Amino acid sequence: MTDLPVLSLVVFTPLIGVALILLVPGDNHRAIRWIALLAALASLAFSLNLLGYKPDGAEFQFREDISWISAFGMRYTLGVDGLSVVLVLLTTVLSVVSIFYSWDPIQTRVKEYYATMLLLMIGMLGVFVSLDLFLFYVFWELSLIPMYLVIGIWGGPRRIYATVKFVIYTLVGSLLMLVAILAVAIAYASAGHPFTFSYETLRGFGYTDSLQALAFVAFFLAFAIKVPMWPFHTWLPDAHVEAPTAGSIILAGVLLKLGGYGFLRYSLPLAPDAAVAFAPIVIGLAVVAVLYGAMVSMVQPDLKKLIAYSSVSHMGFVMLGVFVFNTQGLQGAVFQMISHGVTTGALFLLVGVIYERTHDRQIAHMGGLNARLPRYAAIFGLFTFASIGLPGLSGFIGEFLVVLGAFQYSGWVAAATMLVVIISAVYMLWMFQRVFFAVPSDWMRRFWPTLTDMTRNEWLALTPLILLVVGLGVLPGPVLDAISAPVQRILDVVNASPGLTSWSLPW
Q1: Residue 452 burial (CB < 10 Å; 0-12/13-18/19+)?
Q2: What pTM does this model have?
Q3: Is 1 a residue whose pLDDT tops 70?
């Protein structure tokens, strides 16, 4: 297997599934579902080869490098370090879970749905393995179109509004990112070097302070919208509420991580001086996002909206950990991305479970579900506790490391984030109490005779997420070991940076 182009197989195996699905008659839903699932499982199987990544080996492993558009210095260059490895594995696992869970809920335009989900998988995986900036941009844009279709075709009653908002926000950010990519490539070529989009070449070039500042702002807007950071977050709750369950799983579990990955992979290494100079602003926005997401979550009447706003808070932890520029903060940020993907993806899946039975998500309409659906209540409780950072589950590790890193930066910043840890426990446990242990509402009593507990397919979809949320909480070492070298390289670049010495910034 080591002689195979593993990364290309991981990324493009779903494309074979798309081709096969297009050949199957549209009314043969069973064959279409099996082809999609097997294609996603094959990609997952190939991605398991990445467990052979050696933290003490070369920076980028499993490399593939082929000339693509030589006239413009564009190459098909793939490679992974520890940061990419964990995110690729997260993507393949959640993609399999989403496709499998869709087996029963998706009954209309099944052929188009599964082809779209596989195309989305290709775009997301390509982002995490690209080492050519233009190739990265191509995959970044590719991930936008399928999610637009998933929400716009299979979403809720306000799906058109949600998709238009989603596309406008993310497309504006994408175009700014393209400008930044072209700017750094042109600046490198203007110094007498061959024109190239190679990440490894461009990141070591000494760009002027003005170019770094402008490029960082452009990258920041693109990645901050995707994270999303406050105040660029307003597209997220609408997208989550209108998306089908599998769309919400992928949106929260993977697509938001594209923004965090972009900061770590591109913003900091390409513009380290600007990153140091603008760090206080980003940290301020991150603290606001952490507090705002938690406070707004407390008053949400809709289960999906509550979890969506909690994502704003959790991803605020990620941005805080990235920009405090210390080992604990950065490792905590990456671990928080992985844990949030698993935990929040599972919570959206569980919301989908009750929605399929009642076609409602209003917390006030719930109550007493523990008596009727005890297994469902137990699993929902597990992921609720993981979300609030209970020790022994995955959520604790990331939040603990980020808070530890924040203490090294500022006691006040750390105190604010600690306050949010308490608030998150309040709104999540209050939600759990109202849904499962309150007196059943009259509306819920109508469904009482027909409510059934977890089905076999729902258990199978959740099983890998249960194993991950417990396994990462008890044994975080392998993930921390894998990301330690990439984190240290980022810190070495940033800590050696003097900031924007030729710019007069007020801070």
Answers
A1: exposed
A2: 0.90
A3: no
